[in-house]
Specification:
The structure is a homodimer.
Chain A lengths: L5 H17 L7 H8 L3 H7 L3 H24 L5 H18 L3 H10 L13 H16 L7 H17 L1 H7 L4 H9 L1 H9 L2
Helix pairs in contact in A: 1-2, 4-7, 5-8, 7-8, 8-11
The first copy, chain A, binds a DNA duplex (30 and 30 nucleotides) through helix 3.
DNA sequence: ACCTTTGCTGACAAATTTGTCAAACATAAT
DNA sequence: ATTATGTTTGACAAATTTGTCAGCAAAGGT
């Protein structure tokens, strides 16, 4: 009996991820994805019954991955400052590699596709990180505020410039390289901003 | 001779803006927009020849408006600190009122619709603001960095939390009201972060 | 060799979305 | 009233996108 070929199914999902998250084709058709994967459309329907089902899986897994990634860093036992520094580095690369991921998620949440997995809730690692943040605020290492807002700032300062790059390329008269050069100084800048 | 009815045309555009920017229906069909406007679809084609043309106009005008809005504040002759404070207030409301606007722009830019208006270039008001930022850095009022990065931080800290609200509602276990409460403390927090 | 299961494909069907058009309608000037 | 001009509409056609299905190919077990 032939083993279930997991190759094509994975190929399709990875291609969908690339099309959606990297190339940012939020309106991509199943044909677009099939072409990009070098397969034909009925195969896509063979593995995923419908476009919605493919999107649901891609959505759920991507969200899960992001949470896992954040947990791995924020839940690690590094000293606070290094943890934040590490987070910036890792997430900068992560978002750079999938600049349309967050826009995709936002859009899908908004579509209220009832198939999408429900919230997993705040993971314990993040809760612990939030209380670490609170403690650092008491120690005076960082500015006092809601720990949630501290986290949001972190994500904002790292993600936003990458996500909105096309907008600012057009706004400033920059080449892509100019803009990327601008990005390189951000890590230390963000650290400076956060640790007053 | 009957006067050219500008009412319906405006109604359609405003409805499209609402559907795209406020409701975030990035996949909205012409039927969706027509229904939301209370007109029928052929009327939409009467005023705008195609969906693309409608989107082009909505895109161009929205981008223009955003630039005008930014210019009006950043190009004003308020003292630097008040100018930044004013910007935060105004833009917070602006983005709150159209949370999907930036995602829409990003997505459309990416679609490389050849009809979209080309970059207007960095407006002189923004150039002036950037040199003001540079001067404040020399004076030591704010941290030294690329002035562009200063601007990007401003936009990031104001926009990102609003744009990505659905994502964080799901991540933290917050109600919409909880999250909004979190937002209220951001203005002073951002000011504190920026003016070290 | 034969059967069985899984994967792939072309051809077709259905659904959705967009675009068109002629006719009806409204309004104001003549 | 008639005409001219701009607007709205229903009905239709075209294009696009999605979904289905029967059949073929491959591969492993009997």
């Amino acid at each position: 009996m032939p083993v279930k070929d997991v190759g094509t199914e994975q190929l399709i999902k990875e291609t969908a991820r690339r099309v959606f998250f990297v190339e940012g084709k939020l309106h991509a058709t199943t044909q677009d994805i099939a072409d990009a994967a070098g397969i034909n459309r009925p195969s896509l329907h063979y593995y995923f019954r419908s476009k919605n089902e493919l999107i649901r899986q891609v959505y759920d897994e991507a969200k899960g991955e992001m949470v896992v990634k954040a947990n791995a860093i924020l839940g690690s036992d590094l000293p606070f400052r290094e943890k934040v520094e590490h987070f910036i580095t890792i997430f900068f690369n992560y978002v750079t590699g999938a600049p349309y991921l967050q826009s995709f998620l936002i859009n899908e949440i908004n579509c209220k596709n009832p198939l999408l997995g429900k919230s997993t809730g705040t993971p314990p690692e993040v809760r612990r990180f939030l209380s670490e943040v609170e403690e650092e605020m008491k120690k005076g290492t960082i500015r006092k505020a809601s720990p949630e807002n501290f986290m949001i700032n972190l994500f904002a300062l790292v993600s936003y410039p990458i996500i909105m790059k096309p907008l600012y390329l057009d706004f400033f008269e920059h080449s892509s390289d100019d803009y990327d050069r601008l990005m390189t100084e951000r890590k230390t800048m963000i650290m400076d901003m956060i640790f007053s």
